[in-house]
Design brief:
It is a single chain. The protein is α/β, with parallel strands linked by helices. The protein has 2 domains: 3-170 and 247-320, 3-Layer(aba) Sandwich (Rossmann fold), CATH 3.40.50; 173-242, no CATH class. The chain is built from 10 helices and 9 strands. It has helices spanning 17-27, 75-86, 116-128, 141-151, 173-180, 186-206, 222-234, 239-246, 277-282, 309-320; strands at 3-5, 35-40, 46-52, 61-65, 90-95, 134-139, 161-167, 259-264, 286-291. A hairpin with a 5-residue loop joins strand 2 (35-40) and strand 3. Helix 7 (222-234) crosses helix 8 (239-246). The two termini are 14 Å apart.
């Protein structure tokens, strides 16, 4: 599949990557008639799924995986869910462990390389709707986890899975961690750490012998946070081991499902290695589309409640592989 220079022209009012990132998150408003379903996982924990149903039992299924500290209520999840529902698809917006408003039961957390739950959910809906085509859509952290799942070869993919699309994905975890540590990205870093710290303090109440939150509010970057918490509670040696094992970049060559990766050059979250042009030119199933503009999961053409280019691009890619 090809390397593509995306034709998104940027936001009408600003081509600044920070503006394109922040504007939809602050001002986009979408209401959806989600139906919540609590799904029990094989290890006894749970995921809360928010669904948009279809009367057609054989309707195609789109499963969406959000980014770091996102949820089914993130504007990009709602925007894509609304568009795909309008096209007759059954939509499943997955809330990763602890992201639905309720803390999960076990010590382990969701993270950039956690693929067991992705595997379980995709197979569940493939088995429930055996005549339906299945598609997967991942954003940022959820996109990295999805790409790893599709390429690491550790689990058998559902036979109904036709294609996947991943948007604004930090496939180089170590590099993107350093990128977000820059002074110009401190607004995002503070917001992420505030949310992560609140959850970890709550989790520590349930697992006081496994989590020590002393000095947690003094942590200033992801490397420190992942080294102290993500790695420890999820079985990695340290942050370096976590990044090395989980970055999706190393698994792209093994992808065996048609997959689109869409990243913007002005995305403030992404490192230089997050733009795998050379691989896309050589891989028969991998399409990498690089846009000059778009920010991080932005791609609004003008007003925050107007047209979003990446939604239509994902729809076009999925339509190409509907019968695949």
């Amino acid at each position: 599949m090809p390397f593509i220079q995306g034709n998104f022209k940027g936001n009408l009012f600003s081509k600044n990557g920070h503006w394109e990132t922040i504007m939809p998150a602050l001002f986009r408003k979408i209401e959806l008639p989600y139906r919540r379903e609590r799904f029990t996982l094989p290890d006894g924990d749970f995921l809360d799924l928010d669904l948009l149903d279809q009367s057609n039992e054989d309707a195609p299924i789109m499963v969406l995986f959000h980014g770091l500290e996102g949820s089914s209520n993130s504007q990009y999840i709602k925007g894509f869910s609304k568009r795909f529902q309008q096209l007759g698809m059954r939509c499943v917006a997955v809330n990763f462990r602890s992201c639905s408003g309720t803390m999960n039961k076990h010590l382990i957390s969701y993270h950039s390389g956690a693929t067991d739950d992705i595997h379980t959910i995709l197979h569940h809906f493939a088995n429930q709707f055996k005549n339906s085509s299945l598609f997967a859509l991942g954003f940022s952290l959820g996109g990295n986890a999805l790409l790893k799942y599709l390429g690491d070869g550790l689990k058998q993919l559902p036979t109904q899975l036709k294609a996947a699309c991943c948007i604004s994905v930090p496939i180089d975890l170590a590099g993107s961690s350093m990128q977000l540590s820059k002074f110009t990205n401190q607004l995002y870093m503070r917001q992420f750490l505030k949310s992560l710290n609140e959850k970890m303090k709550l989790k520590a109440q349930f697992f006081p012998n496994s989590i020590d939150t002393t000095g947690i509010d003094k942590i200033t970057n992801f490397w420190e946070w992942d080294n102290r918490f993500t790695a420890k509670i999820n079985g990695f040696k340290n942050a370096e081991d976590y990044y090395n094992q989980c970055n999706a970049l190393q698994f792209l060559e093994q992808l065996n499902v048609p997959t689109l990766l869409l990243n913007a050059l002005n995305d403030p979250f992404l490192s230089e290695k997050c733009f795998p042009e050379k691989l896309a030119k050589q891989h028969p199933l991998f399409t990498f589309e690089q846009c000059q503009y778009g920010g991080h999961v932005g791609f609004a053409s003008a007003f925050p409640n107007g047209y979003y280019w990446h939604e239509e691009r994902a729809i076009a890619f999925m339509n190409e592989h509907q019968q695949g």
